[in-house]
Write a structure and sequence with these properties.
The complex is a heterodimer of chains A (318) and B (667). Chain A is an alpha+beta fold and 318 residues long. The relative contact order of chain A is 0.12. Chain A is built from eight helices and 18 strands. Chain A has helices at residues 6-9, 12-16, 39-57, 61-85, 201-205, 232-236, 266-283, 302-314; strands at 26-27, 34-37, 89-93, 98-99, 105-112, 117-123, 131-135, 138-145, 152-155, 159-163, 170-176, 181-185, 196-197, 214-220, 242-247, 253-257, 286-291, 294-299. Chain A has a five-stranded antiparallel sheet. In chain A, strands 1-3-5-8 form a four-stranded antiparallel sheet, with no helix packed on it. Chain A has a four-stranded mixed sheet with strand order 13-16-17-18, covered by helices on one side. Chain B is of the alpha+beta class and 667 residues long. Chain B has four domains: 3-153; 160-190 and 537-580; 212-502, no CATH class; 587-660, no CATH class. In chain B, helix 6 (107-124) runs antiparallel to helix 7 (131-153), helix 9 packs across helix 12 and helix 18 runs antiparallel to helix 19. Chain B is elongated and about 115 Å long. The two termini of chain B are 59 Å apart. Mean pLDDT of chain B is 83; it is low at 198-206 and 489-505. The chains are: A alpha+beta (318), B alpha+beta (667). The interface between A and B is large, with 46 and 61 residues.
């Protein structure tokens, strides 16, 4: 703040969107809580002016007294509104990645050392219905759904945390602009063509064969497992149904390949790939992802899924 | 209240309950002066909204509502012949608020209702300014503010919480606003007069003296105990029997009624006053209740009158504008005087219409034949009233025919107006210039404070006659009636006037004494209220500024003072709020601090950096007798502060243990 130049200090942008993302928690203090009358506040001002005119015209001392009392209540209200926002420490946790079309959900933690703060409102965009909360003493967590965004990496928007409490005549706000971003995966297509079966690089090189089975281990039988792989000896020893697993097993490994998709524009292909990833993961298949200029080797599990989806989110032509 | 109604009301959202209560409180004092149909319509509209909120009825469609408003506007116009100004305007405003309630769907509408209600509170002070009414309106404002806070607390509606916090916050807001409000009240510049002329309807009909005196037309004298004005004397007040408060001078007599000029003409410069002082001048300040006429009351006879007033040839003092607000003025009078001795007054003071009062005419001739001297004639006339069976009554018979002859020769029962009017006619017919003066006589000192209360029931009328060599002389014919001829003797009906000395003193009972005392306390409050709040006008503001050493006509100095004090008030508010925040909100810490304060009295103070546990152990070693309690309290405190599952029960236990703790050094 001290280093802020005059031009910056009074730039309109600073009051509406802030001057850019800031790392760490946002602490509300005198320098970053702004306040202006609301439309109701302007109406109240008009009513006060009418009252004063009446009091002057009728030379009525009590009318003066109550006009001044109401005016003072309005001014005291400014102080209360302003203080309702002061001294808060706001931590913003960036949202988990979501598919395009779904709202990313931001988590805000309000650290409030003082008494309860009524009627706080959080918005990401001016016209959105604000998320309302009351922050009691201590920590309060609020979630805010950001507006749905297209695929890609988006920097976190500047948030307005505001309040009109207690009179509704003034609105105090502060701009919380956290560092960090929010990843949007492509929206999964309704359905996708079955992916090309295949192993990873070295599998592709040789013939697909069960003879090349590298025994990997045993696992519990799952519905749909081939009877060929049941470890019958173990079954005979009353050890339950176990299944032999082999590495480089072509029947359960697929390649999700950009080039293997029917011709379509890039976003459609990404949507289809997204669907394929979800389907493959659901079916317990291993899958590799081949994008132009980027390939992820075969794998399985939450981390692998996340890696693939992130790749889709971040993929750019050329 | 029966249970069904209670259940029914419980369905009304709390914020609306508060709003409706506030509006009902606001409307109540207005209902009495509204036309009957409107006075019924407004509660009906409020009840409609209440029933809607309780889920019983639907709100009217916009079309129906428009019809209602149009009908009300038409009705108001027919009743008041206008829609603007104080009376019609406030009635319209009240109706619009009630109607808007039925069209209150969104937050915005709530604010419209609240602001209109705030405005109506201020408009209401044009009608009524008493202390109880102001307190009532203060309570109304509090309720409305609490409603406003509740709406701001739950901007989306729906979850309507308890109202207690809102009422408390509204109270705090009002109290915290007071310093700034006082600064504005004292120093915000008060422009001199009306901006566009005082609307005529600011002057309603109020009790008080009338410009026309028609004895025999009115069958009873007002018993109104309302205060007419209050007086503070500089120095000791003169005895009540000497206090004749001149108001109106009635010169023209048409055979039935006496008339005072309706619009007094400034006929006299103070230099033209032909007044010889025979006693020391009396300085006093009058706080006059609004009576909607221009005349002011001054002690007989005024030496010096307020600057902005006019004084007529008859020494009637008038304000340039009707007194529609409380008015304070200072004057100097002299109680013994010789007035206008040089010139005999003109024939207008002798005029009695031909044919009026023939029997009085005959009596006048008889008296004149017996007494050549004017003074002797006046005394003979007073003797006539004393010797003949004249009675004083506040409820005399009507005199439909000639009121003068009828009173002097037939009924012989009357009050001051009858006596004064008949006496003046008698003197005029005997060739002595005479006029009737109406005003007030006496006044009741408030024993708790040194001022005098003059009430409407102190209204009086007397005669002034011009006698050669003496000038205008005040004659009070009513005072000639002996005490035993005063009818209707209950205390409150007994005339308080010139007969004050003759008044039979009955010892009042304790209840009467008590009630009188309460009455005096109340009147003192009322007087202070008038002095400091209602009477605070431009003149007093100028006075105050001068006393503070600031030139009231230098707007920069005034604005500077106002600004500085306003900033001071705001800075004080900010500091106060900060200080209050320091007082922590965590009840566990508060209780812990209370304990620390108690321990400090035994010399046990936590060292810097000492943890509560270590401090507790140290205390327990010293206070062997309460070691176990102390350890338990420390454990509870630490649990409340740091354990995530601390409960309200822990807090209660800690509180109970701290309260019940006996610090004892011995085991």
């Amino acid at each position: 703040m001290a280093g802020m130049r005059l031009r910056q200090r009074f730039a309109l942008r600073r009051f509406l969107r802030g001057l850019g993302p800031v790392a760490g928690p946002h602490l509300t203090r005198a320098g970053n809580v702004y306040i202006l009358p609301t439309r109701q506040g302007l109406g109240f001002l008009l009513v006060l002016a009418l009252m004063l005119t009446g009091a002057i015209n009728y030379v009525n001392s009590l009318a003066f007294a109550f006009t001044f009392l109401l005016g003072s209540v309005g001014i005291t209200g400014i102080v209360h509104t302003w203080r309702n926002l002061l001294g808060l420490r706001i931590h913003v946790h960036p949202p988990e990645p979501v598919f395009a079309g779904t709202a990313p959900r931001l988590a805000l933690v309000f650290d409030n050392p003082d008494g309860p703060r009524a009627a706080l409102e959080i918005t990401a965009r001016r016209r959105d219905t604000p998320r309302r909360l009351e922050a009691g003493q201590g920590q309060t967590v609020a979630h805010l759904d950001l507006p749905p965004a297209p695929r890609g990496r988006h920097p976190l928007p500047a948030l307005q945390v505001s309040t009109r409490f207690p009179l509704g005549l003034f609105r105090a706000w502060t701009i919380v602009h956290p560092e960090g971003d929010c990843l949007i995966w492509p929206k999964p297509a309704e359905s996708a063509p079955a992916p090309r079966a295949g192993g990873d690089a070295h599998t592709l090189a040789g013939e697909a064969g069960q003879g090349r089975d590298d025994f990997a281990g045993l696992r519990d039988y799952r519905r749909g497992d081939s009877l060929h792989h049941v470890h019958w000896k173990a079954a005979a020893r009353q050890q339950g149904l176990l299944v032999k697993e082999f590495q480089g097993e072509t029947s359960e490994s697929v390649i999700l390949d950009w080039d293997g998709l029917p011709p379509a524009d890039a976003e459609t292909r990404l949507s289809l790939l997204c669907r394929q990833i979800l389907d493959a993961e659901a079916a317990g298949q291993r899958y590799a992802l081949h994008l132009p200029g980027h390939a992820i080797p075969s794998g399985r599990g939450a981390d692998h899924r996340r890696r693939c989806l992130d790749a889709l989110a971040l993929w750019e032509a050329g | 209240m029966n249970a069904r109604l209670a259940r029914w009301l419980a369905r009304v959202p709390p914020a609306h309950r508060l709003l409706l209560i506030g509006l009902a409180m606001l409307a109540l004092p207005h209902l009495l002066r509204l036309p009957a149909w409107l006075a019924l319509a407004i509660p009906a509209l409020l009840l409609w909204r209440l029933a809607h909120d309780a889920g019983r009825v639907r709100l009217p469609s916009r079309f129906v509502l428009l019809g209602l408003v149009a009908a009300a506007v038409a009705g108001l116009f027919v009743h008041y012949r206008t829609l603007i100004g104080r009376d019609a305007g406030s009635a319209l405003l009240l109706f619009l608020i009630a109607a808007k309630l039925l069209e209150m769907h969104r937050r915005r509408d709530v604010y419209v209702v609240l602001f209109l209600a705030d405005f109506l509170i201020v408009v209401g002070f044009l009608f009524e300014q008493s202390l109880p009414y102001t307190l009532w309106m203060g309570a109304t404002l509090l309720i409305l503010l609490a409603a406003q806070i509740h709406f701001a607390r739950h901007p989306a509606g729906g979850d309507d919480g308890p109202l207690g916090p809102d009422l408390r916050l509204a109270t705090r807001l009002l109290l915290q606003s007071l310093p700034l409000a006082v600064v504005l009240f004292l120093f915000f510049p008060r422009p001199g007069g009306p901006l566009w002329g005082m609307p005529e309807d600011a002057l309603g009909a109020r009790t008080g003296l009338s410009a026309t005196l028609s004895p025999g037309r009115i069958s009873h004298l007002s018993d109104d105990d309302a205060v007419a004005f209050r007086v503070r004397f500089r120095g000791p007040p003169p005895p009540p029997g000497r206090l004749y408060w001149r108001g109106l001078v009635h010169v023209h007599f048409d055979g039935r009624s006496w008339y005072a000029p309706h619009h007094p003409v400034p006929a006299l410069q103070p230099a033209e006053l032909d007044l010889q002082e025979l006693s020391d001048p009396v300085h006093y300040t009058v706080t006059l209740e609004p009576h909607d006429r221009r005349w002011l009351f001054v002690l007989d006879a005024p030496l010096s009158v307020p600057l902005d007033t006019v004084i007529t040839v008859d020494r009637q003092v008038a304000s340039p504008r009707p007194v529609s607000e409380l008015k304070r003025y200072s004057a100097i009078s002299v109680l013994r005087y010789r007035l206008d001795t040089r010139h005999r007054p003109g024939p207008v003071y002798l005029a009695v219409p031909d044919g009026a009062a023939p029997r009085t005419r005959a009596l006048a001739s008889r008296l004149r034949a017996a007494q050549a001297d004017d003074r002797a004639l006046v005394n003979a006339a007073l003797d006539y009233l004393r010797s003949e069976p004249f009675f004083y009554s506040r409820q005399p018979p009507l005199l439909p025919d000639d009121p003068i002859d009828g009173f002097l020769f037939d009924s012989r029962i009357g009050f001051c107006e009858h006596y004064a009017s008949a006496f003046a006619v008698l003197l005029r017919l005997a060739g002595i210039p005479a006029r009737v003066v109406s005003g007030y006589q006496g006044g009741e000192p408030n024993p708790l404070d040194d001022y005098l209360i003059v009430r409407q029931s102190d209204a009086h009328a007397w005669v002034e006659a011009w006698l050669a060599g003496e000038g205008w002389v005040r004659i009070d014919p009513t005072a000639a009636i002996p005490a035993e001829r005063i009818l209707e003797t209950p205390e409150r009906l007994r005339p308080r006037r010139a007969e004050a000395g003759d008044r039979v003193q009955t010892a009042p009972g304790w209840l009467q004494r008590g009630l009188r005392r309460i009455g005096f306390v109340w009147d003192m409050l009322d007087e202070r209220w008038n002095q400091w709040i209602l009477g605070f006008d431009r003149h007093r503001q100028i006075d105050l500024l001068q006393r503070l050493g600031i030139d009231p006509f230098d707007w920069r100095a005034t604005a500077g003072l106002l600004g500085a004090l306003a900033v001071l008030a705001l800075a004080g508010l900010l500091l106060y709020l900060r200080w209050r925040d320091r007082e922590t909100h965590d009840p566990a810490i508060r209780i812990w601090r209370r304990l620390c304060r108690r321990l400090a009295r035994h010399g046990l103070v936590p060292a810097p950096g000492e943890t509560p546990r270590a401090f507790g152990r140290r205390c327990a070693r010293k206070m062997q007798g309460s070691a176990r309690d102390l350890e338990r309290i420390v454990a509870l405190y630490l649990r409340l502060r740091y354990a995530p599952d601390a409960s309200g029960r822990d807090l209660e236990e800690m509180q109970r243990r701290v309260r019940g703790l006996k610090l004892d050094e011995k085991a």
